[in-house]
Write a structure and sequence with these properties.
Blueprint lengths: L2 H31 L1
Keywords: Membrane, Transmembrane, Transmembrane helix
Length: about 35
């Protein structure tokens, strides 16, 4: 039960990092348009 939250947090961090990379690209493209 102690290792379960660690796995959950690592999965959440992976998902956030994967979704954050395209978000940065979108922001940079928006800045270029503006």
């Amino acid at each position: 039960m102690v290792s379960t939250p660690y796995v959950l947090w690592s999965a959440i961090i992976m998902i956030i990092s994967l979704s954050f990379i395209p978000l940065q690209e979108m922001l940079s493209r928006m800045n270029e348009i503006i």
